[in-house]
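Lab notebook, bench 4. We co-purified these components, and the gel suggests they stay together. Before we commit to crystallization screens, I want a quick structural picture of the whole thing.
Request: model the full complex, all chains together.
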Amino acid sequence: MEPLIGMGVLALMGAAATVAGASEDLESDVGSQSNPNSQVQLAPQMMYPHRIYNKAISGEPPSNALMCAIGGAVTSVLMTAFSMSILFAISIGALVAAVVHGSYCVTAYMGRTASQKRYKQPIYLDIIRSHVPVMIGYSFITTFCIIAIAYMMTAILDHPFPLTLLAFIWGITIGAIGSSTGDVHYGAEREFQNVEFGSGLNAANSGNIVRRAESGLRNGIDNSWFCAKFGGPVTGIAFGMTVFLSGWVTTVFDASISTAVGWMSVVAGVGIILLLILWNRRIEVSARNAYGPYKEEDDEEVAA
Amino acid sequence: MSAGGSGGSAGEAIPQNKLIVFGVVGGLVAVYLSYFLVSIAGSAFAFIGALGAICAIVWGCSAVRRVASYGLGTGVPSIGMLALGMGVVATMFGLAVGGIAGPVISLITAAIIGLVIGVLANKVLGMGIPIMEKSMTEIASAGSLAILGLSVTMTGTFMFDEVLTYVVATGYIAVIYITAGLAILHPFNANLGSDETQDRTLVTGFEKGAIAMLIAGIVAAVSNGAASTPTILIGLFIWYTAFTKYRELVARDAYDVVGTGLLPTEEELE
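Here is the predicted assembly.
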């Protein structure tokens, strides 16, 4: 393949991945999925009932793998059995996946809240009506972008794996990256805006999440508004960079030219990782110095 | 901190042994019935395989519920993924060597792998959960039967060559893996909490199993051996029935179901 076409496809995949990463993180913030969910789940038990959407669909990697695999399978069926054009096939595939995801969201919220009877946490139906369409919308965007990436890999880059399997693998990947990158912003910052920045989660504060909003009672959509300013875009950039940089090293240093060039791609990959580690360390240190209390004597008291 | 409630066995109205019989017999009978009816009467009967998968899924989520109530917390998804991983390996092995006896060999292989993993978890990792060995055996077997049932619904047969061509090589095995896997582990995860009840969790299993059936029905459109429409329609019917029932049980179990409202007051909480 022409190197220029390879780079173009890579850039498109990186762009799709950036959008998918952002929408994936915001979807999990609306529903409080993944790591921050443990505090939302714990809050009623600690006498803090709330109006925040509480869902867990087995963690973000499996739930994103579910919607991407379903989307990929439906897309692939529509293209092979009904010879549908790729654009319509991806749209319908992503729609089916998003609706299935919506049903998982509803059972997760209703079930978990019903299981908190003794802590007197009511089920608010308006929360379901307002939040589930938002989550379906975000998961549609995520699934659409992921299937587009998987399709470009099979159709243009001639990847040996079938579309459904690639969508499944990318689903796990985006879930893992969304869970590790964006959740911190929601779980540590948004849920605990009532404590000093960087103070960690003291055991006494467990479950004491912020339940009142800028106006009225806080819900998941307020949280996604906050996270859309930083957590979501950062997740998008993280996932886009993962897709772009991991493809970039093998496109520039193509192993099919010679083995030596193949090894160059490994060296370039290691170089990028080292660079990112050093850069991350610098960001963390400067953030601590600029904002955090991080007093030496408090170190032992900081838990979790 | 485990938000999953106390360590200890979960309360159950339906004894686990009944659910084991329901899963094993229902799963195997449906897989064989589907296979023979498809070869005798036509591809429309492929949907029976998915009914067997639903039986296995309900059994599986009951087993997950029992083992996870020992305070596994976030380990619930891991255990389900592990189960389906064992299930895929066992199913492929069983179908490859077994021919017509393939499903039975798959089930036995899955049970053996599950038992070994359970023994490793307790003896080597030292998890110390009393029912670990039994539960891992059950979850792996249920995973294997669910994969078998959905494969039969997609292709109309469990002969290895067909399954390899239409399910594995096309990548649809990924969608079987994840829809069956989440159907087994999501019900307990979704109903996690101090006031979780067995019937509500199992009804969620039916509902998620019906979604797996629906997706298998869509994929069946690619294959010549299995009809798509009956599976989709019956899947939708089961989903609707189970979801209505689930909605009733939620209304029964919840503290309150309100259209909208403020938070409970301090007095109410005391």
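Chain A has a mean pLDDT of 90. Worth comparing against the SEC data before the next meeting. Chain A has one domain: 3-252.
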